[in-house]
């Protein structure tokens, strides 16, 4: 009699929704080095622990669990340590991820670029699993660079190198840019993650543990010289334009995804800011 082999169960991992760095990098590491068939689940922050119990999933990148930040190291670092991954390219990648995830871009030259790409992807893809699919490609590419291409340079010709040196010298001679405080960085991420919800300056100030009056007074210094309300509306309009140009969502769906109460409200604010109706930004079909 033939008995089919008992296969190990597919691992389930769960983390908070709207991933940026760690919550894309860790699923990539899981599927490429730990369990290629692993199921990745995203859930609202306050539901991760409960859903982990319900789904028999392992929570990660949330406070109070095993797979999380320790000291200056991010969750990706812990996965590498826990599963004893010795691949030098992964160790190179870990530093880049750590720098991007903890805002210590000085750790690796690639960290700021990884953050910029990740933030842009999160802005363009409101669905977390679509975002993860694109993120897998990003980390595949970054891993290949770390594994095979670290010594490659884009500027190979002497003239190109000369121009690059002149440009770098110019940058070093410029006065230092205004340092952005930690609360402003955190606030920017909060706004980006919750642009589809009702955002209150008073409630956010509680989360940041600073006074509403201080936040209101200082906000424009770090957010394009705009007030809190103006900046929120600008971000919503920009996201709406991106969705209209790159997705098949209806205007009603886009209004909902960008935090407007209904399509009428969305259309009114959109026209006020751009001078055009939302439908004008739709991609027109190419002429045959």
TrEMBL record:
InterPro entries: ChrB_C, Homeodomain-like_sf, HTH_AraC, HTH_AraC-typ_CS, Tscrpt_reg_AraC-type_HTH. One of its GO terms (molecular function) is DNA-binding transcription factor activity. Residues 185-284 form the HTH araC/xylS-type domain. This is HTH araC/xylS-type domain-containing protein. PANTHER family: ARAC-FAMILY TRANSCRIPTIONAL REGULATOR, HTH-TYPE TRANSCRIPTIONAL REGULATOR EXSA. The lineage of its organism: Bacteria, Pseudomonadati, Bacteroidota, Chitinophagia, Chitinophagales. Keywords: DNA-binding, Transcription, Transcription regulation. Pfam families: ChrB_C, HTH_18. The keyword Transcription applies.
């Amino acid at each position: 009699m033939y008995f089919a082999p008992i296969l190990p169960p597919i691992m389930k991992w769960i983390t908070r929704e709207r991933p940026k760095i760690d919550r894309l990098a860790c699923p990539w590491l899981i599927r490429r080095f730990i369990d290629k068939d692993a199921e990745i689940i995203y859930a609202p922050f306050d539901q991760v622990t409960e859903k982990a119990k319900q789904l028999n999933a392992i929570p990660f990148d949330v406070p109070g669990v095993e797979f999380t930040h320790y000291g200056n190291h991010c969750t990706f670092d812990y996965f590498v340590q826990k599963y004893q991954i010795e691949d030098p390219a992964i160790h190179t990648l870990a530093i880049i991820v750590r720098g991007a995830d903890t805002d210590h871009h000085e750790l690796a030259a690639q960290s700021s670029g990884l953050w910029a790409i990740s933030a842009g992807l999160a802005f363009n893809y409101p669905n977390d699993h679509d975002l993860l699919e694109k993120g897998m490609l990003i980390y595949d590419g970054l891993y290949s660079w770390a594994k095979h291409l670290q010594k490659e340079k884009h500027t190979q010709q002497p003239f190109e190198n000369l121009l690059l040196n002149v440009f770098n010298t110019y940058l070093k001679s410029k006065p230092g840019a205004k340092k952005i405080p930690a609360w402003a960085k955190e606030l920017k991420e909060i706004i980006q993650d919750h642009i589809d919800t009702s955002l209150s300056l008073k409630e956010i100030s509680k989360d940041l543990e600073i006074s509403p009056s201080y936040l209101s007074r200082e906000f424009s210094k770090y957010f394009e010289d705009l007030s809190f309300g103006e900046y929120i509306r600008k971000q919503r309009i920009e996201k709406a334009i991106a969705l209209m140009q790159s997705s098949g969502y209806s205007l009603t769906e886009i209004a909902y995804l960008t935090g407007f109460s209904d399509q009428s409200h969305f259309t009114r604010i959109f026209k006020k800011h751009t001078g055009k109706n939302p439908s004008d930004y739709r991609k027109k079909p190419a002429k045959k």
